[in-house]
Write a structure and sequence with these properties.
The strands form two sheets. Strands 2, 4, 5, 6, 9, 10 and 11 form a seven-stranded mixed beta sheet that branches. The chain contains no helices and eleven strands. The protein has strands spanning about 5, 10-15, 20-25, 30-40, 45-50, 60, 70-75, 80-85, 90-100, 115, 120-125. It is mainly beta.
Length: about 130
């Protein structure tokens, strides 16, 4: 059974940093590209960042470019999202998701994902 478990969410103040993790079990992550999504209250779930199977390709939404960094540790079956200079607009539930791929790319399309985590809430106060 595949499980993706996010952790590291919480309440922070604007300008602070936070790192969230996504630990996978029941799946070998090095066969999957990984994407972080977020869903703010009343809004659709949106892609934040993705990373290819080996980590050679990374993509970021314009809203987080230069502030967020995605990384992965395939040996530990874990992916991370380092978030700096957080603002109240970053408040959302953050989800990790994986997509089985045979290439060195990744996607931020919700419909392309094979498995999803249950999310971790990040609240940024002003």
């Amino acid at each position: 059974q595949v499980q993706l478990v996010e952790s590291g969410g919480g309440l922070v103040q604007a300008g602070e940093s936070l790192r969230v993790s996504c630990a996978a079990s029941g799946v070998t992550l090095d066969r999957y590209a990984i994407t972080w999504f977020r869903q703010a209250p009343g809004k659709e779930r949106e892609g934040v960042s993705c990373i290819s199977r080996g980590g050679s390709y990374r993509n970021y939404a314009d809203s987080v470019k230069g502030r967020f960094t995605i990384s992965r540790n395939n040996a530990e079956n874990t992916v991370y999202l380092q978030m700096n200079s957080l603002s109240p607009e970053d408040t959302a539930v953050y989800y990790c998701a994986v997509q089985y791929r045979n290439d060195a790319m990744c996607s931020q399309s919700r419909g392309a994902m094979n498995y999803w985590g249950t999310g971790t809430l990040i609240t940024v106060s002003s």
